[in-house]
Amino acid sequence: MLLVEAIILSVLAASTPLLLAATGELVTERAGVLNLGVEGMMIVGAACGFAGAWMSGSIIIGALCGIVAGMLMSVIFAFMTLGLAVNQVATGLALTILGIGLSGLIGARFVGERITTAPKLAIRGLTDIPLVGRILFGEDAFVYLSLALIVAVWWFLYRTRAGLVLRACGDNHVSAHALGYPVLRIRLLAVLFGGGCAGLAGAYLPLAYTPFFIPGMTAGRGWIALALVVFASWRPGRLVIGAYLFGAVTILQLHAQGAGVGIPSQFMSALPYLATVIVLVLLSRARTGGSTAPAALGTVFVPDR
C-alpha cells in the first residue's frame, strides 16, 4: 500500500507542470494562436521562480516571479505575431531558443543553491487516512491550483459569453472582427494567460518538485504540453486525463528501470512520447467527436485598415 501511495503521489507531482502549461496553451490555441515557445517560457519561469524564492525566502514570491517571467516572454511572442504579423511557428521556435539561453544566463549564479520546497497540506484526521489521505489532502498548493485552474478554464470557455467570443476568434477571426470584436486584443490576453501558466509550470519544478535549479530542468515538458493539447482535442476535460496519463507513464518507466526490467533505458524514456503517438493514432482512427481544432489556428490576422 505504501508503494502504491508513493507511486500515485509521484504521478501527481510529475503531472502538475504538464497540466499547468497545457491549460495555458489550450486557451491560447482556442483563441487561434499557435505558440510553440512553451518550453522557452517554462525554463525562464523556472530560473526566475527559483531566483525570486532564493532571494526573498518566499515560495509565493518565487511563483509570482515565474508567472511574470512567462508573461514577459509571451509579450515578445505577441509583439512579433500579433503586432508584426510574423509567422507563429517560426516565432515560437525562436522563443524557445531564446528562453533556453536566457534561463542559463539568469540561473547561472543559482546553480548549486538550495531552497525549502513548497509545504504540503496537512489536515489533522484527513491527511492520516490510509492511502487516500495524503493523495487527497496532503499535496502542495500547486497541485490543487492546477485542478482549480482547469475547472475555471472549462467554465470560462463553455459557460461565459467571453469564452464564446474567444472561441469565435479561434474559429473564424474574420467573422468575429466583422461583428465588432477586438480579435487582436482577445488574442493578446490569451497569449499572456498562456505565458503566465507556462511560467508558473516552470517555477513549479524548482519550487515544489526539486529544491534546486539546474539548466534545462524542464527536459522537454513544454513540448509534451503542446502534444497534450492535441491529444485532448482542445477540450479541458481530456487535458486532465492526458496530463495524468503522461505523468503515470513517466513515473512507471522510472520504477521499471529501478526494478531492473530487462528493457533498454532509452526505450523506457521514450515511452511517454510513444504513448502519445499511439493514443493520437487511435483517436484519429476512431474519430471520436470529430476534430475540434480551432479553424483559424496559426493563421495570421491583419484587421482591415
Q: Your description of this structure?
A:
By secondary structure, this protein is mainly α. The protein has a single domain (2-286), classed as ABC transporter involved in vitamin B12 uptake, BtuC, CATH 1.10.3470. Helix content is 71%, strand content 0%. Helix 6 packs antiparallel against helix 11 (236-258). The longest helix is centred in the N-terminal third of the chain and has 29 residues, at 2-30. The protein is globular and about 60 Å long.
Q: What's the CATH class, please?
A: Mainly Alpha
Largest sheet: none
Instruction: Fill in the CATH topology.
Output: ABC transporter involved in vitamin B12 uptake, BtuC
What is the radius of gyration computed over CA atoms, rounded to a whole number of angstroms? Answer: 20 Å
CATH architecture: Orthogonal Bundle
* Oligomerization category of the chains in this entry: single chain
Termini Cα gap: 65 Å
Number of domains: 1
Question: What would the keywords be for this entry?
Answer:
13 helices, mainly alpha, 305 residues, ABC transporter involved in vitamin B12 uptake, BtuC
Task: Summarize, please.
This protein has 305 residues and is mostly helical.
Architecture blueprint of SSEs:
Elements: H1 2-30, H2 38-56, H3 59-83, H4 88-107, H5 132-137, H6 141-159, H7 161-171, H8 173-178, H9 183-209, H10 221-231, H11 236-258, H12 265-269, H13 271-286
Helix pairs in contact: 1-6, 1-9, 1-10, 1-11, 2-3, 2-4, 2-9, 2-10, 3-4, 3-9, 6-7, 6-11, 10-11, 10-13, 11-13
